[in-house]
Backbone:
């Protein structure tokens, strides 16, 4: 099934792209997708502790099961002021 | 482009004379009507909403890049009482983003400089600068005399303290943070929306570089939310997280849910 993954800020820099269209297996959980992406993009793995996820514009924990047409966003929490 | 024209000025003056008379507590004066006429005349805003801003009491936590932008616009908008708190002194490296301060302020307390700047911008509001570190022991005391808190802090340890105090008192919290070219903002309405600990259970703990204009962008988004809240216009970021990427000019708006086991606002904590 096809899904879209969008990257923001430092995560976009780590991947070198703003979004990726991917084909993933049915029943895959969001956290499994993250493991896959971190395997493909080592720089993304370095940011793993500082990553926030959303699925279809809703905050996501990682436990969610992906569905056809889903849109995932990956971004860092930021601290400065 | 008639904003600076004599016609425009006459309109302002006429609008002011139409219904605002005497200086009364909580009521708009003739001077208020002129001063805020450009926002009073926004369709759906009007004099009553401006009066609500005048009655509002807000604490700006942190007088750095976010706090400079947020507080200046809150003062300009006519928020009646602004308490601004910061325990630092102005440093040269602050000046790329902390537009409260100039070179002559280096070495001085941020809180007193910020108070002076806000008073010079708007003598019709009350302003109080407080040089104090926000701690678990004093947070509730510091915020209990205001109606809302704007989180313009630069670290998550203190953000959690303010978040917890706001949840405890049922007080709205307007969060903002920034890093490099990007930032985030969300509005916390206790018992209704997710709080900071629901969404950011672990602090980022990264000392970050910041482009000054990005701090200004996020700070003014916070100020917009505060003004809308007190004017009775639904804050668009209540229960949502806005992610802003100023390098590529992209935005993402994410719906948030409260976390049941949140150590601050989770239902399992309720008595």
Residues:
């Amino acid at each position: 099934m096809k899904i879209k993954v969008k990257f923001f800020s430092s995560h976009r820099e780590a991947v070198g792209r703003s979004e990726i269209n991917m084909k993933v297996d049915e029943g895959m959980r969001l956290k499994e997708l993250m493991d896959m992406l971190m395997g493909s993009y080592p720089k993304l793995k370095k940011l793993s502790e500082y990553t926030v996820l959303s699925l279809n514009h809703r905050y996501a924990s990682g436990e969610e099961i992906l569905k056809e047409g889903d849109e995932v966003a990956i971004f860092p929490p930021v601290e400065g002021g | 482009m008639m904003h600076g024209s004599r016609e425009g000025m006459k309109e302002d003056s006429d609008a002011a004379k139409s219904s605002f008379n005497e200086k009364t507590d909580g009521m708009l004066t003739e001077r208020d009507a002129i001063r805020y006429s450009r926002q009073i005349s926004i369709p759906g805003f009007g004099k009553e909403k401006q009066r609500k801003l005048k009655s509002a009491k807000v604490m700006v936590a942190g007088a750095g890049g976010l706090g400079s932008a947020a507080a200046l616009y809150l003062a300009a908008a006519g928020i009646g009482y602004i308490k601004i708190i910061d325990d630092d002194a102005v440093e040269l490296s602050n000046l790329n983003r902390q537009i409260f301060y100039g070179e002559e302020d280096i070495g001085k307390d941020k809180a007193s400089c910020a108070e002076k700047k806000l008073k010079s911008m708007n003598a019709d509001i009350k302003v109080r600068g407080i040089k104090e570190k926000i701690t678990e022991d004093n947070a509730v005391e510091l915020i209990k005399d205001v109606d809302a808190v704007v989180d313009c802090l630069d670290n998550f340890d203190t953000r959690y303290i303010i978040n917890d105090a706001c949840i405890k008192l049922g007080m709205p919290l307007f969060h903002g943070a920034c890093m490099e070219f990007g930032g985030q903002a969300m509005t916390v309405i206790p018992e209704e929306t997710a709080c900071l600990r629901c969404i950011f259970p672990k602090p980022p703990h990264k000392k970050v570089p910041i482009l000054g204009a990005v701090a200004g962008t996020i700070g003014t988004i916070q100020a917009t939310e505060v003004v809308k809240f007190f004017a009775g216009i639904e804050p668009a970021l209540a229960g949502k997280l806005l992610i802003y990427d100023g390098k590529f000019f992209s935005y993402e708006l994410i719906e948030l849910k409260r976390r049941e086991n949140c150590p601050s606002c989770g239902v399992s904590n309720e008595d």
Notes: Residues 67 and 152 of chain B are 5 Å apart (CA to CA). Chain B has ten helices and eight strands. Chain B touches chain A through 43 residues (CB under 8 Å). Confidence is low (pLDDT under 50) at residues 1-24 of chain B.
